[in-house]
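3.2 Worked example (two chains)
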Amino acid sequence: MVRSKENTDTNTTTDTDTFRPAAAGDARSPCPVLNSLANHNRLPHDGRNITAPQLRSALGSIGLGADLSALLVWRAFTIHNDDAEFGPHGSIGGLRDAEDVTADGVPVLHLDKVGRPHAIEHDVSVTRQDRALGDPIALDPALYEQFLASTPHRFGVPELGRYRKVRYAEQAKANPDLKFERREHYIACGELAVLRCLFGEGVFKGIPKEYLEALFGEERLPLKEGWRPRTWVKAFLPEAAAVILAISRYAWPF
């Protein structure tokens, strides 16, 4: 079940890493990991005016390698353009508007821009509705419960991939305006691959269900559940690419 955020307001994960849920007016994204980083003050708690160094540091703090962090930050800080045909190369995936800068002209990112259309947000989310059917940003409790119930204990590559395929079949029937092609497929597999790399317990054990309950249900890093970030060997691009391809093998719907 979705845990009550009101009951966790005073919880602390370590002496120096206090968890505080989003307040009214705070900007949040469709990504539970980014929201968790803001709720732990590893990003600005209000979710606004995040600088590139802040985002790189926060991603590194949970075990993401420098190459992957740099790639994700570069994409996030690209200026967005909705024009797929005539916009600047690569701009469709960008998240910022040109005016998103500090008073000193430093580019910043607001978390509510992460869910903007025609960027990285996509249909067939694991826990969010398609844009044509509902709210693509906030957690959908029914989808969340369905996701957790899809496997008994741990979420490894096969479980994650097969569930992505299930979600595609559901939305192909439910959403006549579905937009989910190869680009969206690999973005979606990439999201799960990052979760697997950062929160999986070793090579073969997968992600414990309680870790996902914390991340998705409370938007909290699962420190209380025993998770610790990778420090000695972080998750670099070659590992993530291999996991993306492995998940895609099970999830491929076309």
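3.2.1 Second chain
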Amino acid sequence: MHCPFCRHSDSRVIDSRTADDGMSIRRRRQCPECGKRFTTTETASLTVIKRSGVVEPFSREKVMDGVRKACQGRPVTEADLALLAQRVEESLRLTGVAQFETNDIGVAILPHLRSLDEVAYLRFASVYQAFDSLDDFEEAVRELRATRAGAAAAGAAATDPASAADK
């Protein structure tokens, strides 16, 4: 790490701690040449292998752009998209892998988009799960309905003490 003051090619780490976001490390450094202190932030970089073989850094903005197309005409805000992109990045980081293919990222988006908007989820899933026929759409809709019915039943049981006592 070059000193930002005198451009000396070395520095000494004085203190390290996890940054507030939990995804990076904040380091206090001191230059042995000029003695000045400065702060650096280190993050593990995620890279994406595109279909063409080109490798590029992961971008939340590209996740948002892809999902934005599926959400056209739906009641989804930019804040919703930003939060979804953040959650996708966090779930990718939790895998411990640093390099992903574009299809892996598309698949990682699906569960987050499903909870955000079911219609946008179906639009997006039709591409990333390679729907070939109406049967594929019907199966996806059946799964969504079953999940919704299961969530409604669980919510009703949680709010009705009599039904909880019966179990």
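3.3 Remarks
Residues 134-159 form the longest helix (26 residues).
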